Amino acid sequence: MAGVTVKDVSPHAFVKAYAAYLKRTGKLEVPKWVDLVKTATHKELAPYDPDWFYVRAASVARHIYLRKQVGVGALRKNYGGRKNRGNRPHHHSDASGSVLRKVLQALEKIKVLEKDDVKGRCISQDGQKDLDRIAAQIARASEKA
Fold it and tell me: Going residue by residue through the chain (145 aa), what tens digit of pLDDT does each one get?
């Protein structure tokens, strides 16, 4: 199927497939502390999924594919959530910048992302090819089913 991009497939299916690809290839460097760390200050526990770092990396790659230039601050806001303050009203709380920075650095190392001259990170040509190839595989699989 020619001309299929990440925008043409389901976000959930794409993130799942790309996370599985990242894990299967073994190129993505996962920090030692992933089983101990919380993903944000408003969370009480670390993620239950042992592969959460791959899922977050796939999600970040898709996010940057769709929005050309993204920095750590924008990602912190995007992956943040509601802070439970007891019986007081909820307020937005940003996600951990350190976790997102490590995800960006890991994706940069495997040449999916590259630093932008103006601000933040942008998708590289090789990264765009990888993401589009996986999107095409998903589209073919859903077409057959």
Answer: 568 888 888 899 999 999 999 999 888 888 888 887 888 777 877 777 888 899 999 999 999 999 888 889 989 888 888 888 889 999 998 888 888 999 999 999 999 899 888 888 889 999 999 999 999 999 988 888 7
Here the tokens at position 118 are 């103006």
User: Please, what's the largest Cα pairwise distance for the chain?
Assistant: 54
Q: Tell me how long the chain is.
A: 145
Closest by CA to 65, choosing from 124, 140, 25, is 124
User: What would the two tokens of residue 137 be?
Assistant: 């595989």
> In which residue are the tokens 């920075």 written?
101
Query: Between β-strands 81-83 and 113-115, what pairing exists: parallel, antiparallel or unpaired?
Result: unpaired
